Amino acid sequence: MTTHTDREYEADLHLLRERLLLMGGIVEEMIRDALTAAIERDAALAQAVIDRDREVNRAEVEIDRLCLKILALRQPAASDLRFVTFALKAVTDVERIGDLAVNVAQRASELSAEPPLPLPPAVARMAALVQTMLHQALDAFVRGDADAAGALASRDDEVDALYVEVFGRELDAMRDPAVIQRALRQIFLAKNLERLGDHIQNLAEMVIFMAQGKDVRHPHSRDPEP
Amino acid sequence: MTAPSRPVVGVAALSAGFGDRTALRDVSLALEAHAVTAIIGPSGCGKSTLLRCLNRMHELGAGAWVRGRVTLDGDDLYGPDVDAVQVRRRIGMVFQRPNPFPTLSIRDNVAAGLDLNGFARAERDDRVEAALKQAALWNEVADRLNRSALALSGGQQQRLCIARALAVEPEVLLMDEPASALDPIATARVEELIHELKDRLTLIVVTHNMQQAARISTRTAFLYMGELVEYDRTEALFTNPKERRTEDYVTGKFG
User: What part of B 192-251 touches A (C-beta under 8 Å)?
Assistant: First the structure.
């Protein structure tokens, strides 16, 4: 791997990459803890997730600042340019992933204060799936692996299908008026997981662009290549 | 795909050098009409040699040799009956350092090429004015055409040299680092001028400055050690180059 002749530039790009990975690691932990809090009815753990949102926000600001600095001072080109634009765009999705983890934690906290209502099994499957997806998306980013990132699109379809299943189950459950409020909270929780899948898929598409310079988004609504 | 523009300058299997040194190795490319083509690459990559082969300036050096073919609108520029001076009228050139004739006035500097190429004396003043306007210099010098060209600033002198090249109405204008000796404002003026001129003729610009190549050109050719490594739309070459050597050069990884 050749490195930049300008060491300071190399260090800036390295720092940006490190900050992105660190931020990805934080939201990964937040999702894991929020889901644990939901399953184990652990309000304290849920609160800990909610508190970590500030770390994510700080990381977002820091990454934006680094990207602007590199763009202004270095005028990056080719793979460097694609990496910096990836960082600028990816950071908003990662920040949203953090927000959604907070939303899951909030629902977990509310549910833990109410009488237990078992979560539909499809929620656990969604939870496992989005965690795997996020891990794989970050891994694809680290390795610049467009194929691995491309494989994530079909997994998001699985998440969407599971959400439909959860929604049906909860509707059935709501025939009993006593559980309506809790079932609604569980639907919101599942909806947050479904949205997580969308943001992770966005990340995966950006990894493909970063690695190959190929824009795979919206294949049916684009102008032909100039 | 935008309709590919008509190629105007054709380079086929071009090699060139001095004595036993090869500066350019088997380069082939088609340059589009009414476009700006930038030629980039590190020092000694052959970019100036390529430029100077296009208007038969290279052969003026001691021990210089050229093999291969260069065509302008289908005419073989190295054909046996071709007059190199005539080639240089059709393919003009502007150099890195502004080089106005020091003893001549502004007017006579622009007219110098007209006299050499046998343009009618009667048209002289009109052609001088037109060329100065095309070079975006007329407004600054209209009231002092008889003054020495050396009274102008560096940026103005460079635009004067561009006017001198334009006066003989070339089809192609070659520019060798046209802004490297200029300050940022004078550079911006020359770059703006390059944009305006491409409606009128075809421009080929050699530059060390990659950002400048990215700003001004439609297509970019990257040369390395005498070889053409990559030639593509400028946007593609700077966002997603196909060749590893191009990628390393434009990202600043020189090994």
Answer: 210-211, 214, 233, 235, 238-241, 246-248, 250-251
